[in-house]
Specification:
65% of the residues lie in helices and 10% in strands. The chain is an alpha+beta fold. It has a 5-stranded mixed β-sheet, covered by helices on one side. A hairpin with a 5-residue loop joins strand 4 and strand 5.
Amino acid sequence: MTTPRKPAGILSHANWLVTALHAAFVVLVLASAIRYLTGHGFGDRAPWVLAGALVLLATYAAHRVLPSRVWLALLVVVWFGLVLVAPSFAWCAVPLSFVALRVLAFWPACVVVAGMVVTTVVQWTRMADRFDPTIVLGPVCIAVLAVGAYRALERDALARQALLDDLHAAQGDLADAQHQAGALAERARLSREIHDSVAQGLSSINLLLQAAEREWDDRPAAAREHAAQAASTARDGLDEVRRVVRDLAPAELAASSGPALPDALRQTCERLAGQSGVDVRVQVHGTPVSLGPEVETALLRTARGALANVLEHAAATTAVVTLTYQPDAVVLDVRDDGRGLQEQPVDPDRGRGLAGIRDRLTQLGGTLVLESEPGEGTALAASIPVERS
């Protein structure tokens, strides 16, 4: 449990006033001593006045070795005794009031200042031949103005500190919100990456193993070929998972430093065609250029996701993947001659691939268009804007 701090004086943090207070106090003490000697000469009280002035200066100089409240109490006591002998030293109450405001909290400081004002008024009134309102009202007005001004400064400083505290708290909340948003975005990215790599690979392995099971007795050679392809797909999937974990591009893109997307699409389509028996073709229009790892990875993942849906659900015999390089965009089309989209799947995990594809394209400023009619196949078009240097 944190121990609450004691209230600080309203000038406790105004360090720039310390030098001015020191100088003002020394000047007023010396001026008061000179005024006394000028008016009274070196009479019987002069040694006591000079000794009191030296004690007052010495006490003031001891602020570094004495506790602040003890130091203030000694200053006030010495000043009080000196004013009783020489009222000229009452002017030293001005810097002493500021010292009280710096050392004490507001209301205790007001009590000390009020006591010094009363002492000054009484001593100056005793020296006057008649009642002088300025003697009474002058010290009172000076004290009220000084204390009121620094009270306003204190409230302003507290208000600014409260605003700073609120700002720091808001910055902390914003940082937490950004962290949570980043974590959610990363989870969505990993979900898409896992779906487009692990899930599609497992789906292909499942299809190959089912084919091997059907042909195990009648066509053992074909069954072994399906099993070998499943093992190869599993190895490729393992490599892909490792690359996803390291946040690298797919293996086909990572192996080239130039426009690697057309070759990567051909390799992917050849592999999927060999696994499924579907005739998968690749067409490239325009001049291939490097699109950057994010764009090329997104398009390759889109092609894989679309082809995975074709092989698993469309019952198609032919699929055509078309990559078109336009001046301000790159477009990927995947068309098949399958049965087209039917009713929405009951399984909530089904259809996650299309949602992941759309999310990935949206993050890159791209769009996804899907057209399908029952019995007439499906066409998927993904477009991402690019900037040519």
